[in-house]
Amino acid sequence: MRGSSSLDSLPGKGHLDTLEIENFKSYKGFHLIGPFSRFTAIIGPNGSGKSNLMDAISFVLGERPGSLRVKKYTDLIHGAPINKPVAKKCRVTMNYKYADGRKKAFTRGVNNGVSEHLLDGQLVTGQVYAHEMESINIFIKARNFLVYQGAIENIAMKNPKERTQLFEELSRSHEFQTEYDKLKIEMTKAEDDTQHNMNKRRGIAQEKREAKMEKDEAEKYQQLKNDLAAKSTMLYLHQLFHCERLINESREQISEQKKAIANLERTKVGKIRLKLQKRIYHVKTGRKSLKIEMMQRGELNLSEEQVREYEELKDRAHRESALVQRELLTSIQVFERKEAQDRVKAKEADVQRLERQISALGQKIKETEEENKALKDNLRKIESEVVIDKSAAAEYNKELVSVIRQLSDASGDSAEGERNQKRTEALDGLKRNFPDGVFGRLVDLCQPSHKRFNIATTKILAKHMNSIVCDNEETAARAIAFLKENRYAPEVFLPNEALVVNPINEKLREIRRPAGVKLVFDVINVHHQAARKALQFVCGNSLVCENQEDAKQLAYGGTDLRDRYKAVSMDGTLFQQSGVMSGGSADLRAKSKKWDEKVVKQLREKRDDLNEKIADLQKNRRREIEVEGERSKIASSEQRLQIWKKELKNLREMQLERLQNELEGLTAELNMLPPRIANWEEKVRKSEAAVQELQTKSNEVADRIFADFCQRVGIESIRDYENREMRIKQEMEDKLRSFDDDIQKLTYEIDFVTEQDGQRKVDVEKEKVSQIEKSYKEMKSKEKAAASDLKKHTESMKEAKEVLDEKKETASRLETEWNEVKKLAQTAMKEFTKAEKELLRLESLLTKKQYERHSLLHSVKLGQLALPLKSGSMADVEYEEDDGDDSSSQSSQQSQHDGPSVSDEQIQREQHIKINYDSLPSEYKDVLIIVLIRCINYNYHFQIDDDDGVRQATNRLNVEIEELQKNVSKMNAPNLKANQRMAEVREREAESTEELENARKKAKRIRQAFEKVKTDRYRRFQDFFDPVANTIDDIYKQLSRNTSAQAFLGADNMEEPYLDGIQYNCVAPGKRFRPMDNLSGGEKTIAALALLFAVHGRNPAPFFVLDEIDAALDNTNIGKVASYICDSAREHMQIIVISLKEEFYNKADSLIGIFPYPAACTTSGVLTFDLTRFKQLGINEMTENPPASSSAAAAATAAAASH
């Protein structure tokens, strides 16, 4: 057969020249087939081996065993199926002829079960072999050169993703897929990292702002605390300064007072003692002189016997004088009783005063305990509230973290766009103005029951997702006017009353096949009843299906329009009853985020609500400061309570007990006096009666005894003598007793002054008293001598009387002088007593100020304030526990109620603390406490008043401190580690900034690489796809031989078509649009051929092998296809077809007949027949003899059969 010469005219292309087969499948031995024409038809009976020839071509072009209908390469050797291979190897050689006349032999064989490749007889690798194939546009993966038996319909029925894969193989854009996927993963990861770092940096920035706010708040709080501490320190310095000044002044005044008292002792008391001693000497001297003179002038010239008698009578008179002594003793006891009563009254007054003080102190303790109890109750309440607030804050923080994590996962934490904000503002305004008429947007009033329905429901709701649901048309009109008036964007309204809603078809809810079909209305949850009608209006009876096939079946499967439904698949592909199909999954995915945005909006609202709650709880954290304040108050109250209890114990156990003991002793002593006085009075009365009786008897005896004596002396009776003499003597004795009394009183005064005189030498004074007593005894003895001399000096009685009168005057003058001395002594004692009282007051003031200084230092220590010290340490300031020892008791007794129970050792230790007052402003130093000391002669008057300036300065500082405390309490409890947190945040910010920058650079680098690969892949894909899409309609029209035929090839994803499917739809001539799977077999074949020829026309292989593509074609369509193939073969391609239909293969340029040999194993024979000459003949005689070509084909078939 010679028909290959016509192939040389193919412009710029090579072609398959011949095919050599050796022991391949049914071809035993060596077979040379060809040369092949532009349009070669392979014919033969069924089972003769036509498809094995197709397999031979496929094998030599690189197909795998699985596509050749065998399991392994050795099965390709002739005889292997019956386990009788004729050889150990087989081979197929394709002799390819280039347009310039060059030839190349492509050989592929099986040797010992292994596939081998040869180029022009040279063994090469499979990769080199495939590369050489691709150099002549033969791509085995794309199979752009052959169509297997029965595969033509599969080509038409490929799903969109498979079509995309086909175009990727044909365009070779798949070569970029690995790098594309790798870079896309890297880019996605890099962008995720960038977004993560950006979110992290945004979070850190927010944290930084919060940390800055905390830092500013902490600094402000700390500044207030510092100001408060400074003011408190200034107040304590101010108080301590004036307290120490008063202590120093009190010490100076005490020293001066002691000196003044010493002066008093040295001057006035000494002078008074000297004067008293002089007066005693004069009294004693006068007494002695008077006694002598009286004795000298009053003595009588009696005989010894008369004197003896007189002495006897005198002795008796002395015995009777005991009555006078008893009367004196009684008077003394009465005086002692009065004095004891006065002492009892004084002690009772002291006891009453002490009891009043104890009562007042007990009331203070009771009030303080009640206040302390109230403070503790309040503290427990505040602490409970603080614990509750902390627990609530922890729960809110935990919930807030969860909400923020959900926002981050949903990418919902980004700011809303300006347009969305405007639309939100518009809706809020409508709700405010029409609260009962406007219900909200449809998307906000409902929610898909599951996320997997988001895209499908978005497709159905479409433009009505953002429509506003209202009650009626009037409200809608007023709302539209409101939008226009406020210049908001137009909105779509769904007035419920005006909507015409078709009822739900209940049968649709009973659909079981396909599985998983639901009404769209049923998969949407309605949150507001007003939205149900609007939702039903939008959804209608639309169905949602699991996949496109189910949706397509429901929309197009029924022959009756009433059995067709509007259906949408889960990926958003919508099929309508009219045949219109729409997709756009990328756009739908973007729109479906509205549901997520709704959730995000709710999460934002929840986040804001939690933030507000946490902020409110943060404001309540000032209660913790109140807790500390309450604890401080309780500590201070307990401290005061402890001090007062110790003072009360001291008053009760020490002073009150002592006074009560003394009072009991005085009372007992006072109770003992009346019986003694009564006894004494009874004895005196008895003695008086006895004396009177004795006196009467004595007078009778005396008259009898002294009768002769009276006659001799010349007196009437002895009593006249005694009356006269004894009156004189009595007067003298009275004077002597007066002198004795004066001496005794002066002695008492001297003793009293001596006792007050700083405990001078008592022994010396006692010696003086003993000398006075000795003088008194001498005077007594002299008195006896004078009495004896009285007898001798009777005559000088008159002179004695005169002398007595003089002495009386002297005694009167001495008494006057004594009274003056006594008054002077009393005045001196008053001044001395007053000076001692003032000394005690000053010492008490000093002690009080020392305790006040201790309390101030202790308060400073409790308040943890820093005092500027010159020396000493605040560690020396502490309260001592009451151990109950003697020293502590003595200290308590000494302190009495002037201050807390602090030992003298503690006060002494605190004296070493020297405070530096340089930092105290002069305005607080210059206010002085006025101390007026007026000294007039020996009178001292001390007056210490609180200065108004000090009080005003203290009040002013207290007001400032209270104001600062209020400001501090108003502030939230700050984060005291804000500076540390700020430093950490800044460090993390720097790290995150660096990480973000690195991530951005990396993402940019990867994106650039990805964009380049993406561009290359897109360009390569589109360079192939666009021409195919542009020419397929013309090819389909040519195949259909009708210009009304339509074919459309479109990508689902216009930006990156290789990622999604490619839709291929055809409209047969004279018919409406129908899905590809609803087309007839012939229509599917025509559609598939149109696609194949369009693809082949863009990147044609040098030849095209088609296996029984005419199986489903009727005669009309066979003629159309054959005509198109003939036209195409003449122009730009070599076509090899396997056909059983004469109407098709009689149009070929040459025939290759395949026939079987009778044998145990199928053996094929090959015949070739050139139909060119018959075609030329048929062309010339076409009008006269039309069936010529058919006769030629029949002749070729007969020849094959006869052979």
UniProtKB/TrEMBL annotation:
Belongs to the SMC family. SMC1 subfamily. This is Structural maintenance of chromosomes protein 1. GO terms for biological process: cell division; chromosome segregation; DNA repair; sister chromatid cohesion. The keyword Lipid biosynthesis does not apply. Keywords: Cell cycle, Cell division, Chromosome, Coiled coil, DNA damage, DNA repair, Mitosis, Nucleus. The lineage of its organism: Eukaryota, Metazoa, Ecdysozoa, Nematoda, Chromadorea. Residues 436-555 form the SMC hinge domain. SUPFAM superfamilies: P-loop containing nucleoside triphosphate hydrolases, Smc hinge domain. CDD domains: ABC_SMC1_euk. It comes from Caenorhabditis remanei. InterPro entries: P-loop_NTPase (IPR027417), RecF/RecN/SMC_N (IPR003395), SMC (IPR024704), Smc1_ABC (IPR028468), SMC_hinge (IPR010935), SMC_hinge_sf (IPR036277). Residues 887-896 have a biased composition (Low complexity). The keyword Transport does not apply. It is found in: Chromosome; Nucleus. Residues 783-808, 878-907 are annotated as: Disordered. GO terms for cellular component: cohesin complex; nucleus.
